Amino acid sequence: MTEPLLSIRDLVTEFDTPDGVVSAVNGVSYDVFPGETVGVVGESGSGKSVTVMTVLGLISQPPGRIAGGEILLEGRDLLRSSAKEMRKVRGDEIAMIFQDPMTSLNPVLTIGDQLSEALLVHNGMSDSEARKRVIELLELVGVPNAEQRYDQYPHEYSGGMRQRAMIAMAIANQPKVLIADEPTTALDVTIQAQVLEVLESAKRETDAGTILITHDLGLIAEMADRVVVMYGGKVVEMGTVEEIFHAPRHPYTLGLLSSLPRLDVDLERLEPIVGSPPSLINLPPGCAFHPRCSLARGRERCRREVPDLVGVGDGHVSACHYTDEMAEEIRRVERETGAAFGAGGVA
Amino acid sequence: MTDDVRQRDEARAAAGQDVPPAGQQVEAPRPDEVDATEGMAVESRSQWQLFRRKFVRHKLAMGSLLFLLLVSFTAFNAEWVAPYEYDEINVVMRSTPPTLEQNHFFGTDQLGRDYFSRVLYGTRTSLIAAGVAGLIAVAVGTAVGAVAGFYRGWIDSLLMRLTDLVLIVPLLAILLVAATFFGRGQPVRVAVIIGLLVWVSLARIVRGVFLSLREKEFVQAARASGATDLRIIFRHMLPNTVGPIVVNLTLTLAAVIILEATLAFLGLGVNPPEPALGLLIEEGRSAMQTQWWLILMPGLTLVAIALAINFVGDGLRDALDPTQRES
Amino acid sequence: MFQYALRRLLISIPVIALATFIIFGAVTITGDPLQELRQAPNITQEQIDQIRESRGLDQPFYVQYWRWVTDIPTEGFGDYLISPRPIWPDLQRVMGNTLQLVIAAEVLAFVVAIALGTISAKRQYSVFDYATTTISFFGYSMPSFWFALILQLIVVQIFFATGVRIFPIANLSSADPGTGLAFVLDRMHHLVLPVISLAIFSIASYSRYMRASMLEVINSDYVRTARAKGLREGKITTRHAMRNALIPTITVAALSFGTLMSGAIVIETVFGLDGMGRYFILQLGRRDPYPIMAWLTVVAVIIVIFNLIADLVYGYLDPRIRYD
Q1: How far does Cα C224 stand from its chain's mean position?
Q2: 3-class DSSP string for C131-163
Q3: Which residues contact B43 (CB under 8 A, 6 or more apart)?
Q4: Which pLDDT value is given to residue B46?
Q5: Cis geometry, peptide bond prior to residue A62 (ω within 30 degrees of 0)
Q6: What is the Cα–Cα distance from C23 to C72, expressed in whole angstroms?
Q7: 3-state class of A97 per DSSP?
Q8: What is the domain partition of chain A in residue ranges?
Q9: Is C3 exposed, middle or buried (0-12, 13-18, 19+ CB in 10 A)?
């Protein structure tokens, strides 16, 4: 088995707020292997973004605090690295594409300046070399007339073009790990597909291990090799994309899947997850998901005991006390909604 | 120091931190709005309480408010509080630095007049001037701002042009011209002139709030149910503008106190021998090299009052700001 | 960029025209300009009538205005009411002096305020932050003439104690200022206290805006992007954050130029500087409307010019404005 490129181990990230301490990330572990794409799904507040922000060292402290765990990049613990070393990692070995291209680019600097900055800071290119390389990158991500567009400002770019520029910026230094946080959410539906294509080719170009954060399961199905499902600051299920989509072993994953509108399902019978995401200050005791869980049915153990992540197959793990009841639960949902999980529901 | 009120707001708006956001007040009609539904009345009372609690907890603002009350009370009862008449001459004690002896807390001037008493009377003059100017500014500013924001049209354009104009001519210069020709050295006349010149910033703020309020559902609803313009303005919109007006009034008051002192210092406020803080400083100037207290004491009094008013304003702004947490 | 500048320039022409009209109207309605003369004992009724006729004071208001305003380009601002001396040379002299004072104060205020505001925002809720907040409250609450007097007092006390005059407390130059560099240094030495006194309010005000806009900017997405690129913190602050945060602060500084001119009236009086402010007070004492109108017009033009400069800087900093 190959060594993981990036390994997040028992990460705990907390925030001090006027209402108390928020454990945004509470013992999260997952690996990213070279060349693979790990999809991370979960509702907002599940800790999926905070985890990667911690990886990049972008949590402002205070109010944030990294209370435990380690983040190993090729064996080296980033949490023990100095600020200076972290600066060298950011944008060079690990690069990130942010959600909103409208606000993530500096409005007063040209696109070219902002892109070449990443090159200049990490590999001491001359200005003219950097300019040449940036124009290549812009062409690579499909920005037309890259030569002229180099000197334009973000407001002269459309949303899709800006996100292309963001992708170009992220891959400028051939990063080992590429993190994309909701890369298409802020974009027009018609643009999303194009940007995804660019992202795919960028990934191929760099062969980076990729973390794709999204709440869009469709995107996961299309892009990811493995899936990490997060809930209330914890990983609740992890497995290959096939396992997660065809044989989910956690009721939350099943809930996500059955709330997903699909071509083969009658929309009226979609089964949304009842209730709202948990308050991170006051996490429910026991399994954080139990108040919304269709499997808990008020059982004592769900309210008392925090479930551990346990193996339910080759590399497939789930944090549920009653994973063995999942097969029955899946059949129930299939009966009620007309969806088909086992028979390969998702393309 | 003169156009500061307006500029502070201009810039606050420019810096994206609009003076007390209208949003909160919109959802919080004042408690005396009886014709609101039962539920709204309950909610409004709790909003009002929330505001009061937040303000009371603002220690600096509460302390400043108490200080101002104390100073006002003392100044307005100067006849009883002051150890001496403001023009009482005592040659024996002339040019005495601050001392507890014979109650010359602020010292005496070359004629032996007690400076503590003079500062007390001077404070009264300054407070009256600030009050008159503040009242006029609020009355005119609110009226013009409300009409401009409610009816738009020519009065709105006029208001905006006027504010543009105020931007290119220094307010103090206009004030000096007006005070020279109309002031006649009478503090109240000067205060009226100040009030008639500083209302513009308040009008702009009221206009802004009105512009946003007129699009709100409850105003639309009142209009749809056939309420007259006057009723809409007085019962629905003005109560929701009170917050911004009060905060701006405090800023205006602090500015006006300084402005009045500046005019007095330049010899265009009040005529001697009636004391005013600015005038006392001007008088003390000639002897300041040896009698430092003559400029220090009235000046410190002035700064303390202006500072306290600004702190109160700050506390009000925080208490009215829904994004500010109780802490 | 050139088009943008030109457009801004064209917009300011009607503003100045309107300003001259209002100034003339306001000063004219404030009273009979000849009132002072009537009370003067050694002036006869004929002389007054003659002045009235030569000034066109018997004409309707709009004729008077037109005459006044059209004479500005050719005759400067004409003569003083009483003495047949032209106004413009006096105004020109004091204008130069005041501009030195005001521009120095604006520059000082801007530089100090940007530094204070930036550091306060970067260290929000630190001791430094609280200290600057408190100081700026004092700056808002302190009459500048009093602050100037206190500075003078301190300098005088130091002189009494040590025999050293660290700064002059009056006048623009020494009795024998020398020439060339010596003159410039002497002038700067004389301007230290006035400039500080004048700048203090602006420092208080601008630093608040700088802090507020800096706080907004350092929490923005694009600063996070810059950080994710691995830029040095200093570079993030100067290149990405400050430039954006400066935009609203520049607006404030431009709008505050009138305040600085107001402040100059006071400060020049305190320090006895031969500038526009003292000139204004002097003419006000003589109740001569012509130099007063001239003064107001010149100040309006100066403020418009400075707003124009601010607009250009604004356009330079914010490309979104430039290409509108």
Answers
A1: 38
A2: HHHHHHHHHHHCCHHHHHHHHHHHHHHHHHHHC
A3: B27, B28
A4: 65
A5: yes
A6: 14
A7: strand
A8: 6-224, 240-337
A9: exposed
Of B133 and C75, more confident: B133
Q: How far apart are CA A245 and CA C263, in angstroms?
A: 72
Q: What is the C-alpha to C-alpha distance for residues B32 and A34, in angstroms, rounded to an integer? A: 67
* Pairing verdict, β A316-318 and A94-97: unpaired
User: Could you give the residue ranges of the DSSP H alpha helices within chain C?
Assistant: 2-29, 35-39, 45-55, 61-75, 88-122, 127-141, 144-162, 180-218, 221-228, 233-235, 243-255, 257-271, 276-286, 289-317, 319-322
Could you tell me which of A171, A179, A47 has the C-alpha nearest to residue A118? A171
Contacts of B302 in chain C (CB under 8 A): 143, 146
Topology classification of domain A6-224:
Rossmann fold (3.40.50)
Q: Do the beta carbons of residue C285 and residue C278 sit within 8 Å?
A: no
Q: What is the ipTM of this complex?
A: 0.84
Domains of chain B: 48-94+122-320 (1.10.3720.10)
**Closest chain B CA to residue C142:** B303
Instruction: Tell whether the model's pLDDT for residue C13 goes beyond 60.
Output: yes
Mean of all residue pLDDT scores within chain B: 76
Structure-token pair, residue B44: 């409004």
Best interface-test mutation with A: which of C129, C229, C242, C249 has the largest number of A CBs within 10 A?
Answer: C229
Exposure letters B19-53 (e unless 16+ CB within 10 A, then b): bbbbebbbebbbbeeeebeeeebeebeebeebbee
- Kindly give the pairing relationship between strand A234-240 and strand A316-318: antiparallel
Q: For residue C280, which amino acid is it?
A: F
Query: Under 8 Å CB-to-CB from C26, ≥6 apart: which residues?
Result: B174, B177
Q: Which residue has the tokens 């899936």?
A: A227
Q: What is the pLDDT of residues C198-233, one digit of tens each?
A: 999 999 999 989 999 999 898 888 999 998 888 888
Domain ranges of chain C: 2-75, 90-317
Alpha-carbon gap, residue B207 to B212, rounded angstroms: 9
Q: Which of C220, C222, C229 sits opposite A118 (nearest CB)?
A: C229
Which of C:237-266 have CB within 8 Å of A?
239-240, 243-244, 247
Residues with Cβ < 8 Å from B153, sequence gap 6 or more? none
Cross-chain CB nearest to A106 (options C230, C240, C323): C240
Q: Tell whether domain C90-317 is in CATH 3.55.50.30.
A: no
Neighbour order of strands in the sheet with A316-318:
A94-97, A177-181, A209-213, A37-41, A226-231, A234-240, A316-318, A310-313
Residue of B103, B107, B109 whose CA lies nearest to B91 = B109
Query: Which positions ≥6 away from C15 have C-beta within 8 Å?
Result: B164, B168, C304
Nearest to C244 among A88, A108, A155 (CB): A108
Helices C276-286 and C257-271 pack at an angle, to 10 degrees, of 80
A244/A200 Cα distance (integer angstroms): 21
Which amino acid type is present at position A6?
A: L
| Tokens of residue B270, six digits | 């009040």
Q: Which residues contact B73 (CB under 8 A, 6 or more apart)?
A: none
The predicted pLDDT at position A146 comes to 84
Over range A45-50, report the average pLDDT.
84
Residue B185, phi-psi category: left (phi > 0), alpha (psi -120 to 50), beta (remainder): left
Alpha-carbon gap: C176 to the closest alpha carbon of chain B (Å): 25
